[in-house]
Amino acid sequence: MALKLEQKQALVAELGAHLANAQAVVLAEYSGLTVADMTSLRAAARKSGVYLRVLKNTLARRAVANTPFAGLAEHMSGPLAYGISPDPVAVAKVLHEFAKANEKFVIKAGAMRNHVMSAKDVASLAQLPSREELLGKLLGTMQAPVVQFVRTLNEVPTRLVRVLAAVRDQKEKQAV
């Protein structure tokens, strides 16, 4: 069913809004996948905060024109699924993991702002830890000196209490 001009314009505007907040876009061929497979991919993408859409390439070319992802236009041929996310690792992980499980789903290309990536680059990006993992490691690294300082400060009164308890125990033994 053909889209009307207003629907096409709305679709390009919606895609443009997602691209404005995006840090990465990944293109993948989905020929031969079942509806159930695509549904599971969409669910995984939604869970990770990835905008996943199957679009006509002409509409996608219009949406990426004059954006940092304009270099992807040359890779837009054939039936493609577009994954867009503000977290570059999330979109790469979701699509790469799905591609490993489904041989009919092939990652074609990707892009980060002003940098087009090959399928191999997308796979490398998928191997990186997620944003949450990196933030956790950073917080742990920042918190370690403070925790050690608090332990050191806590050790002084603890030792004093132990010494006083030892003196008390020694005086009790002498008194008996």
UniProtKB/TrEMBL annotation:
The keyword Iron does not apply. SUPFAM superfamilies: Ribosomal protein L10-like. GO terms for cellular component: large ribosomal subunit. Keywords: Ribonucleoprotein, Ribosomal protein, RNA-binding, rRNA-binding. CDD domains: Ribosomal_L10. InterPro entries: Ribosomal_uL10, Ribosomal_uL10-like_sf, Ribosomal_uL10_bac, Ribosomal_uL10_bac_type, Ribosomal_uL10_CS_bac. GO terms for biological process: translation. Pfam families: Ribosomal_L10. The keyword Ribosomal protein applies. GO terms for molecular function: large ribosomal subunit rRNA binding; structural constituent of ribosome. It comes from the Bacteria. Signal peptide: none annotated. Belongs to the universal ribosomal protein uL10 family. Part of the ribosomal stalk of the 50S ribosomal subunit. The N-terminus interacts with L11 and the large rRNA to form the base of the stalk. The C-terminus forms an elongated spine to which L12 dimers bind in a sequential fashion forming a multimeric L10(L12)X complex. Forms part of the ribosomal stalk, playing a central role in the interaction of the ribosome with GTP-bound translation factors. This is Large ribosomal subunit protein uL10.
